[in-house]
Amino acid sequence: QQQVKQSPQSLIVQKGGISIINCAYENTAFDYFPWYQQFPGKGPALLIAIRPDVSEKKEGRFTISFNKSAKQFSLHIMDSQPGDSATYFCAASKAGPSNTGKLIFGQGTTLQVKP
Amino acid sequence: DGGITQSPKYLFRKEGQNVTLSCEQNLNHDAMYWYRQDPGQGLRLIYYSQIVNDFQKGDIAEGYSVSREKKESFPLTVTSAQKNPTAFYLCASTETRGGSTDTQYFGPGTRLTVL
Which of B41, B42, B108 sits opposite A43 (nearest CB)? Predict the structure, then answer.
């Protein structure tokens, strides 16, 4: 119930295309769903995040789509660029009196955008 | 220049040795976390600390130990009891102790290799 399952493991997209990464969770107590971007040899950095009270959030070329009933959320990268080539992690955390801010991470997706 | 620093960047250890990884933050954040990253497995939580002189085990604490004597420092010791310590280790922090929507800021990581 604590898991977040992410797919695909790797993705190759042509420049200008749309990259789509999917995540699924089981624990309905999760209430915060961030996406992190990691370049080789670096630490992850927050890219965009969503709460379950909205179905979509857009920041520039990056959009999170959230389906509460299906317990799924996805990251869409529009007009993908070679500079977007990185590993992307979805994550989830839950509120509550014992909340610790702990994030549960998906397995990661390595994106390669070909010029 | 605020942020999280980790040292060393690369660390080599012989089997049977204990090693300590450094993590320092000057963000005045309350909570700090240690993750282990292995290919295809995402980030797994080792230990976390929400306040000075207190810390809790994460999902994979066996073979590791931590201390939190100062707010800005959260060193991780990889002991000889850790059976497979070769991995990329990431330290992170959040501003408050338990806000589920707090952004986790990551350091640049330490790559540990057991020879």
Answer: B108
Nearest CA in chain A to B109: A43
Q: Please report, to the nearest 10 degrees, the dihedral formed by the alpha carbons of residues B62, B46, B24, A108 taken in order.
A: 140
Closest by Cβ to A101, choosing from B31, B42, B44: B31
Mean pLDDT of A19-48: 94
Q: What is the C-alpha to C-alpha distance for residues A100 and A96, in angstroms, rounded to an integer?
A: 9
Chain B residues with CB-CB distance to A101 below 8 A? 31, 48, 50, 94, 96-100, 102, 104
Kindly report, residue by residue over B22-70, the tens digit of the pLDDT. 999 999 999 999 999 998 788 999 999 999 999 999 999 999 999 999 9
Amino acid identity of residue B55, one-letter, is F
Q: Give the chain B residue whose CA is nearest to the CA of A52.
A: B101
Q: Please state, in angstroms and rounded to a whole number, the distance separating the CA atoms of residues B112 and B36.
A: 10
pLDDT in tens, A93-103: 886 555 566 88
